[in-house]
Design a protein that fits this description.
The chain has about 280 residues and is α/β, with parallel strands linked by helices. It has eleven helices and ten strands.
Length: about 280
């Protein structure tokens, strides 16, 4: 009886500690407007970010040097935003060879590919999307790289449920999904978020958030600094905790006006207050 009780207390304590563990935080590169890589690194480090994510493969430094620069600063390059397009004839797909070329440089790292899938829901099919995902996933697997499907407004995969469905159909253990608040609110504002996150379950490896207006329809309303908007960020955090989310959280920064450093400061300050 004592042994059973000990195991129960131990497991419960471990679970609570995991639940209390802070998520790493990164800024989307589209909000880190400082020109050079070293400038981005300096600002992110000063403000207390863990690194940068949703980054472009092309930059002022070749990829190996860029990765090393973040390593040397004690920061992380969390992810690259890449993707492809499903062919309009219902078969095939296309994507930049830069994705394949980048993979060897990511071997042994915990840098993900955020993979978007462009296409038309009327003329394209899940089979096309799965074939594209499997091709990229198999290439990535050879280098130990993981992928998260990135739902994006107007693309073939534009809902969290689309990403989960295609990830399951692909049957690749290096494939998960990413939840993006701004796209969720624009594409499926009436969807039960708690249920959608629960359905994603262990496939939910990445999350992005931003300040947002409930019932907003423009990016200006749906992508703000975290301290702005009336969307309940604390409730989102609680829902993520409830499904056992353990990955990093990124701040979407697309087209936010104003001084970049000030915006980044406002977002991380507001997020940290929620802890």
């Amino acid at each position: 009886m004592r042994r059973v009780l000990f195991h129960f207390v131990f497991i419960t304590t471990v679970g609570l500690l995991a639940a209390d563990k802070p998520w790493p935080v990164f800024a989307f590169q589209n909000g880190v407007h400082f020109g050079k890589v070293q400038q981005r690194i300096a600002v992110l480090k000063e403000l207390g970010y863990d690194g940068i994510g949703s980054a472009n493969l092309n930059a002022d430094l070749p990829l190996p040097q860029r990765l090393k620069a973040y390593d040397d600063a004690g920061l992380k390059l969390f992810s690259f935003y890449v993707g492809g397009r499903l062919s309009g004839n219902g078969t095939g797909h296309s994507y930049s060879p830069a994705i394949t070329q980048a993979l060897p440089h990511l071997k042994g790292r915990d840098t993900f590919l955020e993979l978007y899938v462009q296409g038309n829901k009327r003329s394209n099919t899940d089979e096309q999307a799965v074939a594209f995902l499997q091709e990229i996933a198999d290439q990535a697997k050879a280098h130990g790289v993981k992928i998260v499907l990135y739902p994006h407004t107007g693309f073939y995969i534009d809902r969290l449920s689309d990403a989960v469905r295609i990830a399951r159909k692909a049957k690749r253990d290096n494939v998960g999904v990413m939840f993006n608040l701004c796209h969720f609110l624009r594409v499926e504002p009436k969807t039960d978020l708690a249920a959608a996150l629960k359905d994603a379950g262990p496939l939910l490896w990445r999350v992005s958030t931003s300040g947002a207006e409930i019932d907003g329809t423009s990016w200006g309303q749906l992508i703000q600094t975290v301290d702005r908007g009336n969307y309940d960020q604390a409730a989102l955090r609680a829902q993520l905790r409830a499904v056992g989310f353990q990955g990093p959280v990124g701040f979407q920064c697309y087209a936010i006006r104003g001084d970049s450093k000030t915006n980044l400061q406002r977002s991380i300050n507001a997020w940290n207050k929620l802890k």
